[in-house]
Amino acid sequence: MKNIIYGHFTDDHDLLEAVKALQEKGIHIADVRTPFPVHGLDTVLKLRRSHLPKVAFIAGVIGAVLMFSFQYWVFTEGWPLNFGGKPYSSILSFIPATFEITVLFAAFAMGIAFLLRSNLGPGSIPDILDEEVTNDHFQIILSEKDNTLSETELAEALEATGALDVKQVNTKK
Amino acid sequence: MEKQNIPEPVPFKFGKKLKTYLGIAAGIGLLALLIAVFVQQLPSERIWANLWMNALMFLFLGLGALFFWTVNTLGESTWQINFQRVMESMGLTIPFAAIFFVLAFPGLKDLFEWTHTEHLDRILQEKTPYLNMPFWMVRFAVYFILWSFFAWYLRKISVKNDFEPHDKYLGRLRATSGWFIVFFAISSSTAAWDWLMSIDAHWFSTLYGWYIFSGMFVAAIAVIILITIAFKKFNILPNVNKEHLHDLGKYLFGFSIFWAYLWLSQYLLIWYSNIPEETVYYVERVNNYKTLFYMNLIINFVVPFFALMTRGSKRQPLYLAIVSLVVLLGHYLDLYLAIMPGAVGHENASIGLLEIGLPFFYLAVFLTLFFISFGKAKPVPENHPYAIESSSYENI
Question: Which UniProt keywords apply (chain A) (predicted)?
């Protein structure tokens, strides 16, 4: 059983102030959910930088190598065709397709990696605590496990920052 | 956001030390020219081609900076305010570029085959409605009068806002930028035809104007980065922070790729269709300038592509400055490859004292004019409504 306390804000600025106020009291914040990216929130929560660029680079390199060698194989070994007397292995003519596949691989890898990492992929069960978060509410989530304070004390601290409808839930996850 | 202690801005002074350095650089350039003319006695077309090339590079830096500023103004972007005066002052060098062009006018006969009106073959005869001296001169005058006017007028409005702030100036700045972009869209292409493509008068390429424009833009951004980093180091622009450098680095990175894209688009189609009248341009360059031809691609695409790919590389001033310098030299080489094979020919063209020394003279004049213009106004626009945002934004 995991005891969770959450509260809502209707303004991103209020949310940022509340996060700072809670952190000053030494309260650990489990998660913050927002309908859109909030400027400065990442640095306040001390989140690590995303690894998505590395995923994109590696996938892009794989795509480039695969497509280039595939074309090279097709036009020299698999099915050589004579295009206007040009050499079979015309590196220049491979570049547009190589470029496209590089972009395709990088884009798909980023999309898939993002979905998997954020638990949004097919078959995953989203743990949305409150539907309002998908609309216009900003949510701070606290967990009793991470903090020395009791559940009621955490709820009071959250309410003190001006959070709306503070709730305590017990989820199985 | 990391809070930094912003030091007090140091007022810019075009001091004696700086003047001495620039004087030495100009001296080196003039010396190289004199040696080339009187001691080495190089063929006249090589001298004129060098003067022409440096005049073009001189113009490109100012024109590219003016374009960069107007694009950002038109897009109502706010990030560039903290170093906007750098671009304004670079733009003010445009009228002086005209002087350098005029100085190279006696060599037009050496540079442009189509000026030999008495011996034109059929292809060049058919091009005379566009490529004839009177019309060429009219275009030359129109380009420079309008470009200079826009550079001067935009700067005037921008400085006026320092003293009597009013919203109307912002609107006027935006509207004038729009008109400049409309004119620039056409003139950047036609000027590239007039001054570069018509050197190889028989040859043509429909995207040549954009190709030259992309090179110009990258070179100008490289110079903006170099000057901005230097001014930041000497606390003349202390408000410029890593976010500005990061975004400038993104422009350098992105437009280097754009340049390579246009380079490939032009080369691939000509290579693929394989028509002699089109391939002649590349045959000359690949056969006789092999090293430079491939070096051009490596310096202008491979180097910035891998060197500026990561986030950290664009936020490291010294590193970014080195890459900018390399790319700037790369676009000088690009211009060399555009002019020399047609104007001088591979028998006479080489990179010697003249090619390396003369740019110092033009650079010194460019920087002198730039510093004089920069010293005449406040280093950062005052009372600009977007100024706060330029100091406080950050890249995610």
Answer: Membrane, Transmembrane, Transmembrane helix
